[in-house]
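sorry for the late reply, my laptop died twice this morning and i had to redo everyting from scratch. anyway the thing you sent over, i finally got around to it. pasting the sequence first so we're on the same page, its 145 residues, then the predicted structure underneath. double check i copied it right bc i was rushing
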Amino acid sequence: MSELQGYCMCGAVTVSMTPARDALGACHCDMCRRWTSSMLMTLPASPGYAALGPVKTYVSSDWAERAFCADCGSALWYRITAPGEMHGQTQMAAGLFDNAGERALSLELYIDQKPEGYAFTGPQRKMTEADVMAAFRPSAEGEDQ
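ok and here's the structure:
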């Protein structure tokens, strides 16, 4: 896949990344909706992405951080910080890239938390909170998986 170039609303942060998959995701969880005032739409980033400019990060859970432009507040990414197989996996905000990197919606997360006022149509996979926790949340040491 080819490298994408993007930038925040004010242009202070520039981002270069190669998508890890040909996918566009939407997260409807409470935190993403509070962060963006809607769902967070993302593209999975391959390792080696670059973000230059005034980037700030916020530890938003026991296993992840969110990044934003310190000047304009634009969402930049959601990254897994917990140890394990998914450590470092990063979802870049799709709005940084023209036409969302020309990707089609393939996944909706926390579909059971989506407000009733909107809905996407199409064949994308839909995961509930329980599905997401079972698939992605790191288990406690010694806990059955």
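The first helix runs from residue 30 to 36.
thats about all i looked at so far, will dig more tmrw
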